[in-house]
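Q: For a teaching session next week I want to show students how multiple molecules come together into a single three-dimensional assembly. I've collected the sequence lines for a complex. Could you give me the predicted structure tokens for the whole thing so I can convert them for display?
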Amino acid sequence: VTQGSAAGIRHHRAPARAGSAWLRRLLPCALLLGGCSVNISVAPTPLPDALVEPYPLRAAVRYTDSINAFSHEETLPSGEDWTINLGKSSRSMLASVANDLFTDVVELEKGEPVPPSIDLLMEADVEAFEFALPSQSVNEDYTVWIRYRIRVYDADGNEQANWPISAYGKASDDAIMSGRKTAMQQAAELAIRDAAVLLLTRFGKDAQLADNQLKDTETIEPPAIEAPAELPPGTNPPGNTSGPGEASDEERLVYE
Amino acid sequence: MRRGAPIRVLTAIVAVATLAACSTSRIDTVKTSKTGIATDESVVIMARSYHLGNDTETDFTKCIGAELGDGDGAFNVVSEKAFVDAMFPWFEPRTAPGDVAALPKLMSRPAIADRMKSTGVRYVVWLDGNSERTAGGGSVSCAAGAGGAGCFGFAWWQTDSNYDAVVWDLESLSEAGSIEARVSGTSYLPAIVIPVPMIARTQATACKDLAGQIRQFISAAPTTSAS
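A: Of course. Below is the structure for the complete assembly, covering every listed component.
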């Protein structure tokens, strides 16, 4: 083991950047005095090909209304109206995940009959959506939580598993003017990607597939997730799902 | 006032600013195994997961990558996004190995090991830490009227930039060591009509110092510390 240590004093030229953080916060407020609305549309973002071995299953994926189009509207105590439209981004994520998870995938719209000879049917809903602004936390981050409800049915149409996944995304604003919208969009995209990661790495266990169908990668335990210290009051921490079944009180996303 | 006097005053203010905004820098290095990098090997700079409460600035991660990929002895630096996409979903904020002990199990999967090999990445450098204002005081008031505008007052604040870099060697699947950068600086904002900010750029200093030390660390040069 080698070690090194040193200390010193440095002098630095000082570019005129003072107050840029103040500007970031004050400019929107100054422009938005008297109330305003913020509209954000989250575009579907292609996911990379996943390094997972597909289950040798023929699966049907049924897209529900909330997966096809979900919009969250909220009026903050400051009077600002926020609308965050997930559009088809959840659908795009689910389609990508299904194609990585199964060797054969049939996509179904709502009400469309389930074809024979499938091994399972998967559908999902956006069950809860929350966000937090830097003014609600102790740092400069925009944060999004999305809870999806996943349901899996067997070939006979019986519910095999039903579980929630709580996905989480966080982003900071680097620009002065367009920072807020871009950061919130990015946080939402990261939350949707996080949902994909949860499905890809835990599907076999959560969907209660037979032991002989589980893959090697599902024995890789992700690191323990702790609640970031900056979660707004009343908001539950992001975390792994507890598996099939109803969400526990700890898992429910509560925002005050 | 004579012509040219304002320029001299401004020059004096800038000179004072240059002298006044200072920072203290400290780098500590612990090396636990031999390192070295071939020309066809790469380095990736990753921020520790925000799922674990880390809030290393994206700009800082990019700065370290840019410093390592530039100048004499530049490394091949794979961007964090390209690496995370290539390894999807195993180096995501939720799934990235939290400890080097998890690496062998992850890399025992042929598909994951093959993909890792194809990225050419030999070292993963995990960054942790942030820059934050730790103290401050004073005030500056500004006013505008028909006759003009101006500011008066004095404000100061201290910023601490504390970052840790942990280096994983993917060839030996072990931790090669760690480097800590601690930079503290005080900024001043005196205002007599015109505010003159004197900013201690602690984050930029931490980036430059840490990147320089990572370069020495990985290229197996003697581990003397920078300041």
